[in-house]
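Cross-check.
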Amino acid sequence: MAFDKVRIRFRKGGDLRLVSHHDLMRCFERMLRRAALPFRSTSGFHPKPRLVFALSLPLGVVGCQEVAELELEQPVEPREIHARLARQAPAGLEILEVRRVDPKAGAHVRRATYRITLPADRCAGLSERIAKLLAADHCWVERTRPRCRRYDLRPYLDQIRLEPDALEIDLLVTPTGGARAEEVLQLLGLGDLLSSGVILERTRLELQDETSNLDSLPVPVPMPVPESLVDSGTGMGTGTGTGS
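Predicted model, tokenized:
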């Protein structure tokens, strides 16, 4: 059946950054119903709007340019959708843009950019640690959720930019997964910033169909864990660090 499709960009901040992805989906569903938009629904006993988020946002992280795609039963002008959703949005959720896309399009994320403000006393020696991390061939980290495993973060780490008062991290995203910004911060000796209350922001999601330089970006290839890093009893490594 023919249908229309729009891509929504929004900001999730303030106290709403503490709302889980599942609750965000429920929030959007209520907004869509209150806005009286002719959205398409899934089949089954509990139909839901055909709304897909490009990449779930970790709890506590501010999303500056988040992306969701909505299927509609009939065409509605993007500016009308924008206005209706904005009227129903709770505090902390801002609708930034709505535009029509090809119904066959998909919001596939290629790269995500994260930013964190740095206290002045945490910049000493940071440039050297960044250079060392980017020069490493491998960077094995231990992940405890959703299951314990050891993986090579380096193929997913694209760039790190040090500004006078902030740090920006570009991470590549693949259909099989990617790295986490907090893992990069741990490797740089900055992991305690998040527990001390410094807020991490995801400033940009770069989509495949909106990127003109896809060929210039490396394709991450997951590396198997070397046997020397695997504990024979548990199948897990025993530490976290970088390799070169």
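The chain has five helices and eleven strands. The domain at 109-229 is CATH 3.30.70 (Alpha-Beta Plaits). Passed to J.P. for a second look.
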